[in-house]
UniProtKB/TrEMBL annotation:
<dbReference type="InterPro" id="IPR001647">
    <property type="entry name" value="HTH_TetR"/>
</dbReference>
<feature type="domain" description="HTH tetR-type">
    <location>
        <begin position="9"/>
        <end position="69"/>
    </location>
</feature>
<keyword id="KW-0238">DNA-binding</keyword>
<feature type="DNA-binding region" description="H-T-H motif">
    <location>
        <begin position="32"/>
        <end position="51"/>
    </location>
</feature>
<dbReference type="GO" id="GO:0003677">
    <property type="term" value="F:DNA binding"/>
</dbReference>
<protein>
    <submittedName>
        <fullName>TetR/AcrR family transcriptional regulator</fullName>
    </submittedName>
</protein>
<dbReference type="InterPro" id="IPR009057">
    <property type="entry name" value="Homeodomain-like_sf"/>
</dbReference>
Amino acid sequence: MSLTSDVGGSVNEQLIRGGLLLVERGPQASLSVRNIAEVAGRSTMCVYTHYRGRTSLLFAMHDEVMNEVRAGLSMAADPGAELRRWCEEHPDRLLWLLTGYHDDELRERSAAAGREICDLLGGGDFAEQQLATAVGSLVLRSLHTGVGTTTTQRKQEA
C-alpha cells in the first residue's frame, strides 16, 4: 500500500500521512521507518533526509494529531461532544496520541497530550471525566467490533 505522488503535499506531509495510515491499522502495526516510508511511497533514506530519524518523524506525527484535536475542540460549542465525535471518527489516532502504543519515545508527549486535552475541555474533574468517557467508549466499541479491527475495516462495515 503506497500513497505515491497522487496524494500530493510535501514530502514531510506524505511521510506523516503514511505514518498515520499505519497508526490507523492499530497497535499491531509497526511504526518503523521502513514501514512508514513504504506506505508513503518513499525511500527509507527519504525519512532521514527530511527528519533526524524515527523519533523526529513520530514527534511530527504526534504533533499533527494533536493539532487536529486542538482545532476541533477550540472551535466547538461543546468540546466534550466534539471529542466524542472525533474519537468515533479516529479511534486509533486517539489511542496512539494518548498511549504512543507504549513507545518509550512518546511517553512524555502522550501524557502531555492527555493533560492538554483536559485543559481544552475546561480543566478539572469534569474534563477528566469527559476524556475518560471518550476513551471508555472506544474500549467498549473495540469489544463489539473486535480487537485489532482497523479504522478502515470499521468504516467498511458501517
